[in-house]
Amino acid sequence: MSNKLRILVWFFLAAAACSPEPSPGASKDSGAAPSSTSPGAAGGAIGKTDVTWTAPASFKLVPSPTQMRLATYQVARAEGDAEDGEMTVSQAKGTVAANIQRWEGQFTGGDKAKISELTVGDFKISVVEIAGTYKGMGGAAKEGFTMLAAIVDWPGRDPHFFKLTGPTKTVQQARPAFDELLQTLGHK
After folding, report:
1. What does the pLDDT read at residue 44?
2. What is the secondary structure of 134-165 as a DSSP string?
């Protein structure tokens, strides 16, 4: 896929993520009030969604830099890593395959995505792991990075994305907490 086409696809996915959902939601243990006026998370609050989750204590809820996100968490770096990891929660349109292909396009020098499936309640979840040099959305290339993402599909709704990105050692250290978070998924 050409870079122009990737950017166009990303633009439409990003625009779709900005559309409001029917009711507010919040992480069960975040202590943050749900945002009922904004589709995105500002000021460390959880944006509007019917999906609920319990974030591990080691994931610190922080203000989201964009309204495209429902939540942003800082994940403490592993010893020896130069920076923290980040877990974002968002909602967008698109198939599982299309989103995985887009994420693979953000990495070079690594293997294809490793994909596994699980079910939690009535959610079908595709867990995706990609490693290599991460170039993200226009940022500087970062070697030795990993993305651990869950595409949470709920019939009749747009998928939710729980995406943990950071230095590989940091992501590996946070993997058990990420897996536990997925087991807490529910809905209103």
Report:
1. 65
2. E-TTT---EEEEEEEEEEEE-TTSPPEEEEEE
Amino acid at 123: F
Burial code (b: 16+ CB inside 10 Å, e: under 16) for 136-164 equals eeeeeebebbbbbbbbbbbeebbbbbbbb
The Cα–Cα gap between 164 and 149 comes to 6
pLDDT band at 14 (very low <50, low <70, confident <90, very high): very low
> Domain total for the chain?
1
Q: Determine whether 66 is exposed, middle or buried from the number of CB atoms within 10 Å of its CB (0-12, 13-18, 19+).
A: middle
SS3 97: helix
Do 133 and 105 touch, CB atoms closer than 8 A? no
The H or E element that residue 131 is part of is strand 123-134
Alpha helices (H) along 34-158: 96-104
Which pTM does this prediction carry? 0.76
**Residue 69: which CATH number?**
3.40.1000.10
